[in-house]
Amino acid sequence: MTFLQRLVSPLRRIDADPDKLVEDAYWLLKEAEKNKGVWPVMTAFTSMATAKVQIAQYLKEHRDS
Q1: CA dist list (Å): 33 to 5, 27, 28, 40, 54
Q2: Distance between CA 17 and CA 60 in Å, rounded?
Q3: Angle at CA 23, nearest 5°, toward 20 and 27?
């Protein structure tokens, strides 16, 4: 992604700390483990954790320093 594309990207407005997102994702995975066997609950927790990690990764790679 070029600088100009990042400048106008709607994702630029994401105001989140990548480290906090990863901490939240870890907590969500722990909660999923507590609900082992309850597939809808486990899926919800792990899906949210995955989304948080992906956003954190994006922010670390593309955020202007």
Answers
A1: 39, 10, 9, 13, 20
A2: 9
A3: 140
**DSSP-H helix ranges across 1-65:** 3-8, 18-34, 39-62
DSSP conformation class of 60: H
pTM for this prediction = 0.78
| Closest to 27 in 3D by CA, of 54, 51, 45 | 45
Rounded to whole angstroms, what are the CA distances from 57 to 10, 41, 47? 16, 25, 15
Query: pLDDT digits over 14-47, tens only?
Result: 888 999 999 999 999 999 999 999 999 999 999 9
